[in-house]
Fold this protein.
Amino acid sequence: MRIGSSIAFSQPRSIYSFASVVGQKEGEGPMKQYFDRIEKDPTFGEKNWEKAESRLQSETLALALQKGRLQQIDIDCIVAGDLINQCTGSSFAVRDTKIPYLGVYGACSTMAESLLVAGILTDGGYSSKSAAVTSSHFSTAERQFRFPLSYGGQRTPTAQWTCTASGAAVVSAEGGAPFLVGGCIGKIADLGVTDTSNMGAAMAPAAADTIMRYLQDTQTKPEDYDAIVTGDLGNVGSPLLLDLLLKQGINIRTQHQDCGSLMFDEQTQDTHAGGSGCGCSASILCGYYLPKLQNNEIHRILFAATGALLSAMSPQQGESIPGICHLAELRSQEGLTC
Amino acid sequence: MRIGSSIAFSQPRSIYSFASVVGQKEGEGPMKQYFDRIEKDPTFGEKNWEKAESRLQSETLALALQKGRLQQIDIDCIVAGDLINQCTGSSFAVRDTKIPYLGVYGACSTMAESLLVAGILTDGGYSSKSAAVTSSHFSTAERQFRFPLSYGGQRTPTAQWTCTASGAAVVSAEGGAPFLVGGCIGKIADLGVTDTSNMGAAMAPAAADTIMRYLQDTQTKPEDYDAIVTGDLGNVGSPLLLDLLLKQGINIRTQHQDCGSLMFDEQTQDTHAGGSGCGCSASILCGYYLPKLQNNEIHRILFAATGALLSAMSPQQGESIPGICHLAELRSQEGLTC
């Protein structure tokens, strides 16, 4: 059902199984103990970066199914997307599954968008199990959005590092914790940021809008949540979000965590403002937060993934960067009584 | 609810309002009398082709709202997508609306995908009205997927012509005919076609799979429909679809129509195998079929939009072309008793 401009599911929907796979650099960061698999070969055994990303995504989905003892035939729909032109990272990952496929595009907000759509398909009775999947790869993103790797371009201090990472989660009508209970579809916010090396600033207003709408619609306060997780504002965008919300009288300083900031050690890994890419928040959701909810270590979180809806061409045409933030609320078994 | 691998809505959902806008060449073809607006300026008053496509899409949505006497605030969600890298055609079209936005990617199948998602949001009670929108533009597609226009490249006989066109439809929980009653989410089919100038052949197997699954799941026969509409197999892909279905004992020759073949006069418009692009089937659905359903001239159709999920780069990397086909069933007021 709708509550204001947000969505509340008729029943909590199980995140039946989930998996995370990351690359070597991500596997050397502060989150390294949480991922299901760290792959040292950035090509994932393939001949080019784009095939590597598709392989990363398809293996993450396969691992999520395996962890849940599920077969492909148990999945009614895959909802997936990525950053590669025409979302081919996902198309080629899904191609061999023979599972119905809805392609979505929300840039780095894709995991929250695909979770919401998979949740809606399942809560509405249109599927019994749907999978939400996304990925990103440092090398596909660099050559598409920035420079050839061999050019060795200098990165600015506000730039984020596109993660080689993927997350997959199966939303199910039946099953146990963690649970997806609702969420909020994002609106585009664009305050005129044109610096493509400062995506955090471009996305912060969208995150503020979505989080504020959801708190209002559900009549909840930041204190009601163990964590309000954004992905990926990074070290530059995060304080902007806190400031924007404070101006509206909402203080999330205690609860706020950001997947981009969590992924890397800024001091030792030379990643500047933090991680980014669809796979950053997806892998941290599936590797770090979902297990904690499953084990009743935390009980109620908001997962607010942010995306910058630009192309490599749009800034060259003088366009500013539209931001979006989709939000999903997740709970533990104990958290259901909140 | 699910029926097999298809979807049946709990109630018929009104296509409350709809609009179609096309460019000059499309407005000179056999369908010219059916479109709401034919715009002779291919730039739509903008400085570049990408902005032109966004303007086309935003004006089509605005026209659909205007025809339904709707305000932006009446729309709970826009579900939109297009062919431009990172779907910026849609992002920039939606940016100024402040309406929640789900970006989708299904290549030229996008109108069926967005209709299905808008229908699911509405039938499931997550929105009271959601809009499905898509667009394509000859000049954005040519320079992104093929050659600079000024290069004057020769097109092969099997090539299709990307339409400058857009369609928008508002799916509503309440309202009159035409009605969206259900549909089928496509699976990727890839039989190894690698010729990017022959998309019809690449997409025909996906169309056959989706149509066959829907007929089976709903226990219906081709004769139950006034039209089984594909978009856009064109003049090369259409006979392949008929053959593929005939081999399965299904004859849709009488009912089959294809938006790509309908859009242009092959003899006089030099468009070779027909029209293509997200906007081709979207504008013909919203300009030609939906009014006929509204006026009880036809009663029951399948709208099976097809997409080729390649990028400009994937064929260069040796990949074949994955096809997909999403399907929506539409009915007139009288058709509800079928």
About this structure: Chain A has a mean pLDDT of 96. Chain A touches chain B through 58 residues (CB under 8 Å). The first strand of chain A starts at residue 2 and ends at 3.
